[in-house]
User: Which sequence fits this backbone?
């Protein structure tokens, strides 16, 4: 397992009129080459902030990376300047967003936009670049690449626009693709097709994928590793099997109980309450106000991460106690 990217103790704040939002409170994880890792959690838990911080696309201000490292190719991306980051973005790391309008320029033809990526990130001789553009359009599953090359984004359907954005992302030959809710705006059938495409690309190109989604079903369908985020922290991480079949954190279990699962007979039970205000996060475990198993210690001290079998890690006092037979 070769490590591709390593995020270490990342802390990010956002300045607001009401105070400082502690959006990421010490996030650490590794991404392995050729794997799909999903980041799941309710909205506002820090999933997108994590992605934007890796890419150094966080609006600063109001955002501010307080501390941490993002190691890619042995170098800390957080120490790179904008010019260096522009080489990396769209080159070795590319991002796909939910909103195609964020990445596709409505005034330029699809082909022109892909050629721009190739001008900036590809070593190919000029004579071969158009061929490469057609190739990535076709890799993204768009029919008639010659035609799509000449079309403007508005001439494409929602699903096709998403594919055009994926084609653009592929043009730079990324080793890491970060997809932030890539299918949320699409209807279910197209959503399934796009996920299948991402899966194929991972298999055929060996690209690693960091998939951000609030939809556990999507994560279960495509990811081999899953990280669960809550209130700016990773509260549980492990293989998809660990998370979906043997969840350790009450929040993960709550998320799973709130979605329909095949063969499930019990009623769905949404997690009560709401995520905490990150300007004044609760002392101790941020989940305690919503946790049915909260103990006294949970209100006082933030739980430590406990390593279970394999790479399964849970950040909860209950697991900690069980693991150390200490209750
Ligand atoms: Fe619940 Fe305590 Fe575990 Fe937090 S640490 S999830 S409050 S049991
Ligand atoms: Mg988001």
Assistant:
């Amino acid at each position: 397992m070769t490590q591709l990217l390593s995020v270490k103790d990342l802390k990010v704040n956002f300045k607001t009129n009401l105070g400082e939002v502690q959006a990421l409170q010490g996030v650490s994880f590794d991404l392995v080459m050729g794997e799909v890792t999903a980041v799941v959690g309710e909205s506002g838990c820090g999933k997108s902030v994590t992605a934007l911080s890796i890419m150094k696309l966080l609006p600063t201000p109001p955002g501010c990376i307080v501390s941490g490292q993002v190691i890619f190719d042995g170098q800390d991306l957080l120490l790179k300047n904008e010019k260096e980051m522009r080489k990396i973005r769209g080159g070795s790391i590319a991002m796909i967003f939910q909103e195609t309008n964020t990445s596709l320029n409505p005034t330029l033809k699809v082909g022109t936009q892909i050629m721009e990526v190739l001008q900036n990130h590809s070593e190919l001789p000029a004579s071969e670049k158009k061929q490469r553009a057609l190739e990535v359009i076709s890799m993204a599953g768009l029919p008639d690449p010659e035609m799509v090359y000449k079309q403007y984004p508005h001439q494409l359907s929602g699903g096709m626009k998403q594919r055009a954005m994926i084609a653009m992302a592929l043009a730079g030959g990324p080793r890491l693709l970060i997809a932030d809710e890539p299918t949320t705006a699409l209807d279910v059938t197209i959503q399934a097709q796009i996920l299948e495409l991402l899966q194929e690309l991972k298999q055929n190109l060996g690209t690693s994928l960091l998939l951000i989604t609030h939809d556990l079903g999507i994560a279960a369908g495509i990811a081999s590793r899953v990280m669960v985020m809550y209130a700016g922290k990773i509260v549980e991480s492990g293989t998809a099997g660990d998370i979906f079949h043997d969840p350790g954190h009450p929040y993960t279990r709550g998320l799973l109980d709130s979605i329909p699962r095949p063969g499930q007979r019990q009623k769905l039970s949404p997690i009560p309450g709401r995520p905490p205000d990150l300007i004044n996060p609760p002392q101790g475990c941020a989940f305690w106000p919503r946790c049915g198993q909260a103990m006294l210690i949970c209100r006082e001290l933030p739980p430590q991460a406990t390593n279970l079998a394999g790479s399964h890690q849970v950040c909860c006092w209950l697991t900690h106690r069980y693991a150390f037979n200490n209750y």
